[in-house]
């Protein structure tokens, strides 16, 4: 890790590096949210707005070299749980994102966010993070038609000789190799490579129905560019989402961004040494407020929750130490509001490469779980597997809290259960019951 004194050239190059590492979200987020019935072009615009303005606020207000953008995992929850599983309209789901941002903002203002985080066992937080990784990895394999339904075994791998499968695997392995070689923008390169490789599929061989070049929501556009689509701006059903049945959705949005952001800040601070004199991450309170504002803003403009991106480590590694890095990356996002038709050409198998590999990155916290301690390992394992197996973040997280508390009580360690954790456990039990 470089420790040189920051200078403008270094900060600008660090911002470019961070942008290239995080840019895949402009491709992947619309691909996921469009499955919820949202217009692809409008989600591209919303994604860019959240990433652009969130990063600018992080750089100018919190003065940290950290990019903010719609978070991976939580966008999958938005589409596949909130909308498809629970039956919310995407307008109502956007409303729940807005309210989670409001709660998040209040918790940050009153400095209670840190207390809540401290009450949640660190091991359980690691298990949730990894469980989300498995969830989005599973979605990636499904979207690439690598994993298909099976009447005998529920799921199975498709015919390996299928051109779609071979193209996806080729893109996955190439991208993995680029990441291993620490190539800047490896995921973006892999997505583009897979897109080019997929072009003959369905034209020269294979099943054309499995390859969708061009979003059906963009059929009125011609060429590679278009004016930004602001049709999702203000579409959030803010009052309509305040329903009793939607409380679990708001809970998951709030909980996930609650510890995801702070975990990112702590991890980046440890890696870079960007800490205040008391040892906490640099400008922590302002960074948390930025995270909260990004989520609230996301609901209003038409995206899933915004959060600090761990990919900011790439820019920090390149020497980024000030807010100039985040500002540079944020500004680089804005031109892509005009590229919706071009981005829509990327087929699901290409964006799925990013889902699978990002899922693998989220396995890293598992090494910090003490697997030989049964009272820690069992709840963490149940959390880890139930998130993808039930296809529901809310179910996996809720069962994680319940199992952690009950296993501790039954093993005679009830004193380790803090009051806030007991309240969260009771809420989790209630959410599962309803």
TrEMBL record:
It is found in: Endomembrane system. One of its GO terms (molecular function) is purine nucleobase transmembrane transporter activity. Signal peptide: none annotated. Coiled coil: none annotated. The keyword Transferase does not apply. It comes from the Bacteria. One of its GO terms (cellular component) is plasma membrane. This is Putative MFS transporter, AGZA family, xanthine/uracil permease. It comes from Cyclobacterium xiamenense. The lineage of its organism: Bacteria, Pseudomonadati, Bacteroidota, Cytophagia, Cytophagales.
